[in-house]
Specification:
Largest sheet: 6 strands, mixed
Order of helices and strands: EHEEEHEHEEHHEH
Shape: globular
Strand content: 15-25%
Helix content: 40-55%
Oligomer: single chain
């Protein structure tokens, strides 16, 4: 069993490393996965882009994924896991999780930075119209306005509990 990730600005990597430490597993970037681990059981972490888990297809092709974890900016919602599952065509044999990660516009480059400059303005506008914000929405607002990370071992608890119980 290994933990594998695809990270753009470091939040998926940070979660993958926290999980690997907690479960005493090896962790690798999908782009640097040693051949010896190909075909092994794995938990994959990838960042969300337009509702898809970046790197999932490559991970699914090279590994036996027991879990796939999408890491994004938005608060968790009841429908987000099914949306990720459907959009990525993740089989029912793979458990899907979503974790609120982090965001810092200064960590982005090129087209991703340009796209997110527009998206951040939309998110800020939507959140500023709300009467009150949940802690997760406040975190998203901080991500958009100053850069912020929600990555924590506590957020991994449901995944760790699932892994230990299976």
């Amino acid at each position: 069993m290994v933990v594998v990730y695809k990270s753009n600005s470091g939040y998926s990597k940070a979660y993958a490393e926290l999980l690997a430490d907690a479960l005493d597993l090896n962790v690798y970037s999908i782009d640097e996965l040693p051949d010896v681990h190909k075909g092994n059981n794995a938990i994959f972490f990838g960042w969300l882009f337009a509702g898809t888990v970046v790197g999932y297809k490559k991970a699914a092709k090279n590994l036996n994924l027991i879990a796939a974890v999408g890491v994004g900016m938005s608060p968790d919602t009841p429908e987000i896991v099914s949306e990720i599952t459907d959009k990525c065509k993740i089989p029912t044999s793979t458990k899907v999780f979503y974790l609120q990660g982090g965001f810092d516009i200064n960590k982005l480059k090129g087209p991703n930075k340009l796209i997110m400059q527009v998206k951040v303005k939309e998110i800020i506008g939507r959140l500023e119209k709300a009467d009150t914000l949940s802690p997760a929405q406040e975190a998203t607002y901080k991500m958009c306005t100053e850069g912020y990370s929600c990555v924590s071992l506590e957020n991994l608890k449901p995944l760790i509990d699932w892994y230990k119980a299976r």
